[in-house]
């Protein structure tokens, strides 16, 4: 009987020892730091490794300082030009690695993650309401940069560093989206018309230059070239006006001199500069 009591006492003592040992050993991982308290009073910051504490006397609170991301829920706000807009963002943050900052992340704020997201939500609403819709759509990166700087200033008070802020999505009403699409289409059409008009003007100028170089007989020569291209298209009969094969087709001395000049390469760009576009436009009218 006494032996059974002895075994029971030994077993109880062993179990008590294992329980105390389990609560007495604290393992801190490489990406963690821990704050050690004694009867609620802060003592020190524990480094990675194995640490022994006294249960119910000491308490350890771990801090993970790896970078983490948190979504800022969509904020539906009126822009400066009274457009209802919904914008959401994502915040990347981590606890600074200094011992003082790790201490602040626990002692200076209740929950640094929740507080940071609340700050980000408030700042995002303020930035949307102070800008026009066009500015929000065109300067998303600049908005994210400003928000990061402002948020980092706030979170520095409790040892948190803002790594990055990204504006994820900007939602606008369907009717506004259709209006913007129509406006963009009209702008593309306007640019296309300007390009076509510039092309027509350049073609007109070059045609004018060519007509001055070739003269009347040059025009007839171009007509013969056109007839030649028509004959290639499997045509069996090609009609040639008799006016094109008269003696007037023979080149004069002046035109022969011009033809010799044309043998050399003529820089049309330099000729284009000598043409007054305004005078040409008046001639066309």
From TrEMBL:
It is found in: Membrane. Keywords: Hydrolase, Membrane, Protease, Transmembrane, Transmembrane helix. Its main location: membrane. The keyword NAD does not apply. Pfam families: Band_7. One of its GO terms (cellular component) is plasma membrane. GO terms for molecular function: peptidase activity. GO terms for biological process: proteolysis. It comes from the Archaea. Residues 23-184 form the Band domain. Gene3D superfamilies: 6.10.250.2090, Band 7 domain (3.30.479.30). It is a single-pass membrane protein. Belongs to the band 7/mec-2 family. This is Membrane protease subunit stomatin/prohibitin-like protein. It comes from Methanonatronarchaeum thermophilum.
